[in-house]
Task: structure prediction
Amino acid sequence: MRKKKIREFIVGNCGICNKEHRTTNGGWIINAEKKLFCHGFCFNLYVHNATIGRLTDIKRRNTYANGR
Ligand SMILES: [Zn+2]
Result:
């Protein structure tokens, strides 16, 4: 049986808290935009902020549409 050795390397830094993440540690997640976050708090924060950003955009568009 061959032993599979996992090579450790840095995958990147969290987009929220800037923590360094490595392949062997886990606990990180990469989104569709290839941005890296700590799995859990930082990723939730990012998703939350992204959702608010979208909602603000929709609200702005609606206000504009209603103003005519
Ligand atoms: Zn983080």
